Amino acid sequence: MTIEKQLPLIEEILSEYKACIGGDFDAYRNHVYRVINLCFSLGQFSAIEKEKIQLAGCFHDIGIWTAGTLDYLPPSESEASRYLNEKGLGAWNAEITEMIAMHHCICSCKDSSFALVEAFRRADIADFSLGVVAIGIPAALIAQTKAAFPNAGFHMQLLRLGTKWLFRHPLNPLPMFRR
């Protein structure tokens, strides 16, 4: 598989958030590209499906920065919905927001009415787990994707945010795992 290293849609969307993301921009951009590339490897997707994957990729964690919280799924879904409505793609809202809402599910999402939900979930978990939980994605592909898009501190930032959350909310689970 060829690694997609420069996708105009990704660059356009993420550039709008560069100031908001600040010093984490490269880390998040690289995570988005890793997830998208891993997702692309899971099937023969149409151009429209690839666009949906890219949209979900851009917005799936964006609420960490736009809302300043680790409870980022609802704000991420809202940012995606706003974008889709502005671009006349409101018909994709249910699918894209489900891809975002379910991307940390431990259990399979194969029962979803949208096939992309499961593929996106598998790709994000493979990257989030640093390839430890590959869910059928070849280790060589994960390594190739990591080499093309270095971590740049993404996982360390998640660890810092998660630790801060646990100290502030010791009896509440991490919000992204509640669903």
* Domain tally: 1
Structural category: mainly alpha
Q: pLDDT below 50 for ≥5 consecutive residues: which ranges?
A: none
What gross morphology would you assign? globular
Q: How far apart are the termini? A: 33 Å
Core attributes:
globular, 179 residues, mainly alpha, 60% helix, 10 helices
Note the topology.
Layout: H1 8-15, H2 18-21, H3 25-40, H4 47-59, H5 63-66, H6 73-86, H7 93-101, H8 115-128, H9 139-148, H10 154-168
Helix pairs in contact: 1-4, 3-4, 3-8, 3-9, 4-6, 4-7, 6-7, 7-8
Describe the structure.
With about 180 residues, this protein is an all-alpha fold. The chain has one domain. The chain is about 60% helix and about 0% strand. The protein has helices spanning about 10-15, 20, 25-40, 45-60, 65, 75-85, 95-100, 115-130, 140-150, 155-170.
Précis, in short:
By secondary structure, the protein is an all-alpha fold. The protein has helices at residues 8-15, 18-21, 25-40, 47-59, 63-66, 73-86, 93-101, 115-128, 139-148, 154-168.
